[in-house]
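May I ask you to review the protein record following this short note?
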Amino acid sequence: MCNLEQFKVDLKALTEEVTPLEWELDDQFFEQLEDAQLQQGSVHVSGSIRKAVGFFELELQSVGTVRVPCDRCLEMMDQPVEADLRLIVKMGSEYTDDDDVITVDEAHPVLDTAWLIYESIALAVPIRHVHQPGDCNVSMSEKLNELSAARSSDADAEDAVDPRWAALKGLKLEK
């Protein structure tokens, strides 16, 4: 079982040096996140957090694969992902998340990176994901080709112009 507590960084405990961060994400990580659309994957996350005067600088790199449904055949496939995350973290009176700057409550100075990591990975997944040619489910591909052929013949029938309207194309208004 993946413990999401390991993704919490205590900002008060950090020193002036660069603190390395490293995690291996698996299916359990994705399953434990609420409202996560990605439910499976294997991703290596590495990076660092650096304490500076008045702020912290977080840099993370994620490399691996996530399991997503193929847009053509709907079977699960491995989608390679690479993501970079760079954030500035500041201390303030309450938690806010604006663009690339996060403000963490000074009373509870803990940065939870789990959802930040998940979002960077989810945004790295391409909009369109399909198997390599020939890897899709054969029966689903055949059905798709069959339906595409039927649809294109219907479209050709619709493209035929009524002869009464075709005669109007020949008329030109002169000014």
Notes: Strands lie at 8-10, 18-25, 41-52, 55-69, 76-92, 96-98, 101-105, 110-112. The longest strand covers residues 76-92. Residues 104 and 170 are 70 Å apart (CA to CA). The first helix runs from residue 27 to 32.
